[in-house]
Specification:
single chain; alpha/beta; 9 strands
Length: 536
């Protein structure tokens, strides 16, 4: 009998690339994620591996994030972001006599220098290769995900849309990591019954759904979510344990809310004199987070208390002890109830660790180290768990529609602010599916030139439709601060689809339009033309 816990981190950023401007706030979503989450996470994982500490972690790197991590322009800009922040750190160290925060600024400067050295010298700015190294040594399981993070249940009215998201996501994984993925992360943990059939048909072994997606199904098992279920198609489905996941990230009682931890929102980018920040902010002059923060969560406003790394370290230790003890007791109770080889799966957005919760990466390190000292608890991955329990009979699973969004279903992405997007996307998905079907039916009678032209049009329409589908845009439309950008991006991709559609309707001409559309979004440049082929 084994008692296993599994941590699953989902890392995603929508495709954002603006070469037309030297410094873009939206591109900083990528750069801050690299500096605050991925570099500290990789540093910690390589340290554990180097010291021989046993651990296993599951990480999903979304296809658009992978594409941005591999993009040469964006790599250069991430390094520029790092250097810009380091210069600001150096200014803060020198300003320490005035602010009284010089010691903290020095700690940040030292940390950033160390992370920069890892990024440039150890990994040559190639974080995809760094993650692959951990995958190859058996410490990390990497999963595939939908191409542009489309909310798959809301795309199922045209199954070809879901097929395209899944196929291209798997293709991107194979291109980056050289082998087929076993697991597939569903964007927003959003599931609908028909999706399982598509995943299994594309060669996927397992996926993860919210706990209630399994436990509220008509034919649920009392063993859920502490054992995987298996669908009629043969897809293994793990349930995300709500209790253990909430223990870490609960809005009211989760660990990151402890007053000893650093306050994310007290950032000098929002508080320092704007003239002082001018060089850092660039041409836009718009205030933004810098990652340099001096206060902890205790107190509010002028009464906020200065961040104390030693106090935070004590909180990390306490919470690590509590988490490991809770999982040990939870698994022991499950075993006593007769659950064979129970597994507790905790899944989070990766940017919780390091970005939103500054101490989160250190917390992960502590729980891995503490588990390594015990004989009754181990961290594993869903894929490793299936391999270790080969031959065990799992209960039948028929997960119901669900997500990890507010309310547990899809209300977040079908609100008054964003509902218009679904009809617009659906209309074009039906157009594209019909066009591809007619092309396949008549291709044998076409000339090579016409065939190549039609295929190019299909490729470009497919890409622009995929880029209009991310759940991120609908989510951000509910946030007034980001609504304009998210709306503009959605409308831009739909408009580009329409431009190509107008060209595709004619037998010749329009090459200049196709060239411009192709240049506008260099992501997925070798996208197959048949992703929208008729779904069987």
């Amino acid at each position: 009998m084994s008692r296993n816990c599994s941590i699953v981190l989902h890392a995603h950023i929508p495709w954002v690339r603006h070469p037309e401007v030297p410094h873009c706030l939206e591109e900083d979503w990528l750069h801050s994620a690299v500096v605050e989450t991925h570099l500290p996470l990789l540093e910690m994982l390589f340290r554990l591996r180097g010291e021989g500490v046993p651990f296993r972690l599951t990480i999903d790197l979304s296809p658009t994030l992978l594409a941005m991590m591999r993009d040469r322009l964006l790599r250069r800009r991430t390094l520029a972001y790092l250097d810009r922040t380091l210069r600001l750190c150096r200014d803060e160290v020198e300003r320490g006599d005035i602010t009284g925060k010089g010691a903290l600024a020095s700690l940040y400067e030292e940390r950033l220098h160390r992370l920069r050295s890892l990024f440039v010298d150890d990994w040559q700015c190639d974080l995809v290769r760094a993650y692959a190294d951990l995958r190859d040594s058996g410490h990390v399981e990497l999963t595939a995900s939908a191409a542009t993070h489309g909310l798959l249940p809301l795309l199922m009215r045209t199954p070809e849309s879901v097929q395209a998201q899944i196929r291209l996501g798997i293709r991107q994984y194979v291109q980056c990591f050289g082998r087929m993925p076993r697991g597939f992360w569903l964007p927003e943990c959003a599931y609908a019954p028909a999706i399982g059939q598509i995943l299994k048909g594309e060669g996927i072994d397992w996926t993860l759904v919210e706990e209630h997606g399994l436990t509220t199904a008509p034919q649920s098992s009392d063993l859920f979510p502490f054992t995987p279920g298996i669908t009629a198609e043969g897809l293994h489905v793990f349930g995300r344990d709500q209790a253990s996941s909430s223990e870490v990230w609960n809005a009211d009682e989760g660990f990151p809310g402890d007053e000893r931890y650093r306050d994310f929102f007290r950032d000098i980018g929002l508080e320092a004199p704007i003239e002082y920040l001018r060089e850092y902010l660039g041409e836009s002059g718009q205030r933004q987070f810098t990652g340099i923060k001096y206060y902890r969560l205790a107190g509010k406003g002028d009464e906020s208390e200065v961040y104390d790394p030693e106090l935070a370290a004590r909180a990390i230790e306490e919470h690590a002890v509590r988490f490991i003890a809770s999982r040990g007791a939870q698994l022991a109770a499950l075993e006593a109830e007769g659950v064979e080889n129970p597994i507790v799966v905790c899944a989070f957005d990766a940017d919780l660790f390091g970005h939103w919760w500054y101490e989160g990466t250190a917390f992960l390190e502590r729980i891995f180290r503490k588990a390594a000292e015990r004989s009754d608890l181990a961290f594993t991955t869903p894929g490793a768990h299936l391999a270790a329990t080969q031959g065990q009979e799992f209960p039948t699973a028929s997960p119901v529609s669900s997500s990890w969004g507010e309310g547990g279903y899809f209300e977040t992405w079908t609100s008054e602010e964003n509902n218009w997007t679904h009809e617009e996307i659906q209309k074009r998905a039906e157009q594209l599916a019909r066009f591809v079907r007619l092309f396949e039916e008549n291709r044998s009678a076409m000339s090579e030139t016409t065939t190549a032209r039609r295929q190019r049009c299909i490729q470009l329409m497919t890409k622009e439709l995929l880029l209009a589908q991310p759940s991120d845009w609908a989510f951000l439309m509910k946030n007034e601060a980001s609504r304009d950008y998210a709306t503009r991006r959605t409308r831009e991709h739909l408009a580009l689809f329409d431009r190509v559609w107008a060209v595709a309707a004619h037998a010749s001409g329009g090459e200049e339009i196709l060239d411009k559309v192709e240049e506008s979004d260099p992501v997925f440049s070798d996208l197959p033309w048949n992703l929208y082929e008729p779904y069987a």
